Structure formats: structure tokens, C-alpha cells
Task: structure prediction
Amino acid sequence: MRYSPAARIHLMITFVLVMCGVAGGACLGWLLGGRVTGVLAAVAAGLGAGIGSFLSRGHVADFLRPAPAPAPAPTSAPAPAPVALSDGVGGYAEGVADAVLVSVATYQAAAFPLTAFGVSEEERDARRGVAYRVCAHEGLPQSVRVSAAAALEAVDQGADAGHAHAAMKALSLAVYDHRAAR
Result:
């Protein structure tokens, strides 16, 4: 009889849980009361782990089951054109977009410090340089690049913290939208 991959994974997890329960129960029982208590604790812990795993098998199988395939698109609509990696699709572009968000946020924290003399001028310049270098990366998606430029401009002006905060929010939403579009 062939089992589904989800059933095999659950069986392996159950085996490990039962063996760990037996070993843990045996050690704890032996420490607390000797050999007889160790055997009884091992049986009880193994039985408890096995029963718990048996009762949760439906939930685990649902969790491990692959998602259903999406319905095919209608034939009247044209198929979307493939997007090249240089357009910012993939895990690499997501990583670059996240790095842009972090670097611009640290630059914003340096430009609008919480205390009056919390950040030195050298540190502010260093964070600004890092933010600009990361934002100029060629693997950055266009939508994130535009939002990052607007956020850098708002932070560079340095006059209105609210405007900079709104620009940072727009940048974080652009990064999120890029990740969700994938």
C-alpha cells in the first residue's frame, strides 16, 4: 500500500514524537523513582504522544497537503508576457527591496533622531551614503526604486518628519506589494 507524502511525513513525525516521549518519560521516571517508575513513565509518555498524534492526524494532513492548482485562465484573454529577472522578479529582488527599506529607515532614524544629539553628523552621512548606494542597485524593482527615491528626497529635506514618515510608509507598501505580486 502506497501512502501519500503527507501521510508518510506524519508517520515519521509520530515516530519521532513517540520515541522522544518514551525516552523523556523513562529518564524522568528513573530520576524520580527508580526503574519501575521509569518504565511506567516511559509507557505513559509514549502512549500519550501516540494518542495525541493519532488524534491530530487530520489537522496535520490538511496542513501538509499541497494547495489546489489554480483554475486555468479564460482563453479569450491574452497570456501575460514573461517577466525577466532584471525586472525585479524573484527572491533576489525581494531581498534587495528589503535591504532598501532597512537602509532608508536607518537613514530616516539618523535624520530625525529621538534625542537632540543622538546621532553625529558623520553617522548621518554614513547612513545616507549606504541608503543611496543600496537604492541605486540594479536588481531593484522599478516600483520600489521610485518609492525609495521619494522617501530619500523626503528624508533629505529634513524639514517635515510627517512627510518623511508618509514617504517611508509608501516605500514599505511598495516593498510589500512587490512581494505579494509574486
Remarks:
- Residues 80-88 have pLDDT under 50 and may be disordered.
- The helical segments are 5-33, 35-55, 57-64, 91-111, 121-135, 142-157, 161-181.
- Residues 96 and 134 are 8 Å apart (CA to CA).
